């Protein structure tokens, strides 16, 4: 139920951090990480994951298959 | 001629002729001489000219806005804004090699607090530091809190420092009031197109209001926002410079249209820069093999826009954390560690006294040039040629040929000496090049020049330059550039007229890739 940031690709530009509606993104050792407990894949907020949309490096903010897809509570 | 006030007439009450304004700034003098665009301007010698006082105050010691000031005053950039909201094909955000530097590239990111301390430290060490810019490495307005917090801190502790910022313009309309509130008096907008079809070839996407827009749709959004932002700024009396990157085959011809569009919206200055693109930069253009323009192509485009508007030709495309005079980078002296350890005392009076001395120098320089120019009066000749100058600033020929990291290029004609650009020759990040190769690089960089003025030059390079058809001139060591160039040109014309030498046109030159930085 979350996205993750591929650390080796992250430039540390911080663009994603303020865009996250759930404040799930923070800096860790120069790159940024997503807290999977907070990330909702932006469902209910926006049409597409904001971190992916703003990230300058393609395929850096991606679905973390270690978690099941996020299920919005209705 | 060109009214600076907003198109719609909603001006702040003063209509300024941009041509005359720039004439006065560039030439910094009085009547009757032809400068950049050949327009004359009357006013007090070596002073404000016809400039309204409020504009003169804004530009007179800003190295980016006044070609003449850039010999004397220094600027610094602080890198507090890492995030960006658009993607450009000439930029690779991932790339930050400590050995390489390009515009917008930095090695150290600063917090606003660190940045403010750095500014104070630099301003206390370099009294001619008058301008603080925030230019990246991303987009300052994509990081509004960090950018404005930095401005706030500096405005409180160092009120005499001018603040400016460079933006891609996407969110500019949202921030115009904040910008005006901070007394930011210069804003640079990078505008590479006004046609979304062309924009789509430069910008793969923009991120706006929680959505990524691609292709023509994204480019349309960007250009609309840029032009709106420009109009809003000029309406508020904030000076705007427009930067454009010249990308041959994509927007080179189109930039004439861009020039017209930004002029009509009140832009103060247009700075057309060559594309910097090499495969090792990892940018889209670098990888597709998109080339940058040659020196001649760049100059031709700048010349063709000049009748329309004032062109900036002294941009060094510096790094987002550059420190020092344009063309020099002292950022290595001011790393975060060093700054945090520094005791900084901000002394406004010392800075003022120093700057007053600089003003005296400027006046003397202009007077010397005027005097020399009068000796050209009556000379008739169609000859127009370029010369290169090795200088460390203050408008003097004061650099050793072998130490020069760049050469300033002046165009000489019976109208006088006109600064038309600079050529970088530092061999930074090329590693392993010997003396021989470096000389070749220099010759390629100034191959379109007839002469090179230096404070001193060794025997070997002298002979090689002569063989390449470039005259090494040492006679004017430590004298004023323009005065010397005019004197040399006069002698050159005499020799041509007497049949002693024949005037032959020179070829094209290469534009060195990469931003200026301190040598390792
Ligand atoms: S997908 Fe949305 S919620 Fe998840 S980290 Fe990215 S921005 Fe935050
Ligand atoms: S936007 Fe992308 S590159 Fe920038 S910090 Fe976030 S994950 Fe890293
Ligand atoms: S990037 Fe260009 S405009 Fe900015 S300080 Fe350097 S020379 Fe001036």
Please provide a written account of the structure.
The complex is a heterodimer of chains A (74) and B (520). Chain A has 74 residues and is an alpha+beta fold. Chain A has one domain (2-64): Alpha-Beta Plaits, CATH 3.30.70. Helices cover 12% and strands 19% of the residues of chain A. Chain A has two helices and four strands; from the N terminus they run βαββαβ. Chain A has helices at residues 16-19, 50-54, and strands at 3-5, 25-28, 31-34, 61-63. Chain A has a two-stranded antiparallel sheet. In chain A, β2 (25-28) and β3 form a beta hairpin. Chain B is of the alpha/beta class and 520 residues long. Chain B has 15 helices and 15 strands. In chain B, the strands form three sheets. A seven-stranded mixed sheet of chain B has the order 9-8-5-4-3-1-10. In chain B, strands 13-12-11-14-15 form a five-stranded mixed sheet. Chain B has a three-stranded antiparallel sheet with strand order 2-6-7, with helices on one face. Chain A binds chain B through residues 9, 11-15, 17-19, 46-48, 50, 53-54, 56-57, and chain B through 82-85, 87, 93-94, 96, 109, 138, 142-143, 207, 210-212. The complex binds iron/sulfur cluster (SF4) (3 copies). One iron/sulfur cluster binds at residues 5, 10-16, 31-32, 54-57, 60-61 of chain A.
